[in-house]
Amino acid sequence: MRTTARRTARGTTRGTAAAAALGLALVTTAACGGGAGTSTPTGTGTATTTPAPTVSTAPTATDPSPSASVAPEPTTSLGGFTAPGTELTAEPAGGRLTVVTVRTGEHDGYDRVVYELAGEGLPGWRVGWVDRAVEDPSGEVVPVDGDAVLQVWLTGTAYPHDSGHDEFAQDLRPDDGDVEHVTRPLTFEGMTQSFVGVDDGPRPVRVLLLQDPVRVVVDVQDGD
Predict the structure, then answer these.
(1) How far is Cα 168 from Cα 220, in angstroms, rounded to an integer?
(2) Strand, helix or coil for residue 20
(3) Sign of the four-CA dihedral 117, 172, 84, 14
(4) Please, are residues 126 and 153 in contact by the beta-carbon 8 Å criterion?
(5) With a threshold of 0.85, does the pTM exceed it?
(6) What is the CA radius of gyration of the chain?
(7) What is the sign of the dihedral through the CA atoms of 28, 33, 36 and 42?
(8) 174, 146 contact by CB (below 8 A)
(9) What is the pLDDT of residues 23-75, one digit of tens each?
């Protein structure tokens, strides 16, 4: 069942209640291709907070747009999914990152949302199912299409004027798959919030970290 609602416009200046929240260009492809470079995940979400990923140098992503030479995000040997009710978390490794592209894709057994970031460092995340999409810090309920809402917090993020990159400024409503709606990412005080509306209720989730360019990949298992 798909419900249709438009998300109200929100400003990028947000109040101090974001520190209390624990939770993301438009390109939509069936293959969900990503940025150039490595296709090997460098981190996965866990049920508890994980140490910051180790890198030899802080990556910098400068081109938010996929090109003909871009390899897609990996689709096999990615690890298992975590059951609903568990929050997946990871800590950032420094960084002033901004979400520059959001895209979705339908795959065999799961649907995928990719948050591509540009700037310095590596992001962390807090990803989990919520009863309602509540905007932080306003406390307003955000209309999200779908039967269940997955909240995605990206941490270690920055305002565009600090990272030097424009923040992705659109909602996505894919035509296919169980992902019905992805709200535009909004940033405040080192955290970026986005909601993913999913058809037919909560289901297992997996989170991956990819580099070159930096991407946080959220996979939502099919409800079949």
Answers:
(1) 21
(2) helix
(3) positive
(4) yes
(5) no
(6) 16
(7) positive
(8) no
(9) 333 333 333 544 333 344 555 554 543 333 333 223 333 333 444 445 689 99
